[in-house]
Specification:
It is built from 6 helices and 10 strands. With about 300 residues, the chain is α+β, with helices and mostly antiparallel strands. β8, α5 and β9 form a beta-alpha-beta unit. It is elongated, with a radius of gyration of 22 Å.
């Protein structure tokens, strides 16, 4: 798959006219590099900020006012594009727009964070700008070293839709193989930032190379024994975070064992949110707290 651009088109060609020509778009506006538009739509307006913060609903739970219970603030490049249909052109349904973007992101290894729809009782998301009742979906995936958050908001039964995109830099792992053992021997531990499926202990494929470096380093130092410690931020209950951190620590230990590191050299323990290394009041701080530590025994 070359890009997400082709997926949105490929999944939605039935029942559409040809895409609007670029000259129909608002001046200075264009599609985001990671997404194209639904066929036949034009860009009504757009806004790009090189650095800002935007709030995204972070799960599908709404409160009594139909506002998201959990919010994720994403800092980075912000893109906002509003699409609509010119004249009396046939439109897609809101569901069709929503499913296209969901399918494209899932095909790229991403996840659907939240989904709200007019037909779903109790899930008519109330947006301060657009009002309640129309569909909204929130999506997340990693691309080009960035964590991409996207919110797709069809309105007027698909006559138009708004696309919000925030690009946050993914925490980078800078320790190379020949430095890893030295750092553990010097400091007694090393922190790794492993990507897992949301709320789960499944290691994402983009973290395999990082763990393979650990395997290589451990094979070069066969006397070294480690505890694999799992740590979380403070989002969610302390009990759930403890359980999740323990499962993730065990998942990393299993990966290392499956790659040839003797099980007797490793142990795993979850610490949940009890040992933060940064301020949980900021996104950057929470990102630093979501870690796996390899601690020398």
């Amino acid at each position: 798959m070359k890009t997400l651009l082709k997926l949105v088109i490929a999944l939605s060609v039935v029942g559409f006219s040809q895409p609007a020509f670029a000259e129909d778009d608002a001046e200075g506006c264009k599609d985001h590099p990671l997404f194209n538009r639904m066929p036949g739509y034009r860009i009504n307006s757009c806004e790009i900020k090189q650095f800002d913060a935007r709030e995204f609903p972070a799960n599908g739970t709404l409160n009594a006012e139909n506002k998201a219970v959990k919010i994720e603030t994403v800092e980075g490049i912000q893109t906002y594009i509003v699409y609509d249909m010119p004249g009396e052109t046939k439109t897609a349904s809101g569901l069709q727009i929503q499913r296209n973007y969901q399918n494209a992101v899932k095909a790229a290894g991403g996840v659907v964070i939240a989904e709200y729809g007019a037909e779903n009782s109790g899930k008519q998301f109330n947006d301060d700008q657009w009002g309640a009742g129309d569909r909204t979906t929130v999506l997340k995936f990693n691309k080009g070293g960035k964590e991409i958050w996207a919110r797709v908001h069809p309105y007027n039964s698909g006559a138009g839709y708004a696309l919000y995109i925030a690009e946050r830099e993914v925490m980078k792992q800078n320790i190379v193989v020949n430095e890893l053992i030295d750092k553990i021997n010097k400091d007694g531990f090393i922190s790794l930032y492993i990507n897992f499926d949301t709320g789960k202990a499944v290691i994402k494929a983009d973290s395999f190379s990082q763990l393979d470096q650990v395997v290589t380093a451990l094979k070069s130092s066969p006397e070294l024994k480690l505890e694999v410690g799992g740590h979380t931020d403070n989002v969610g209950s302390a009990e759930a975070n403890l359980t999740l951190s323990d499962a993730r620590a065990k998942s990393v230990m299993k990966y290392l064992s499956d790659k040839g590191i003797a099980a007797g050299r490793l142990s795993a323990k979850g610490y949940g949110q009890t040992k933060p290394v940064a301020d949980n009041r900021s996104d950057d701080g929470r990102a630093k707290n979501r870690r796996v530590e390899l601690v020398k025994k």
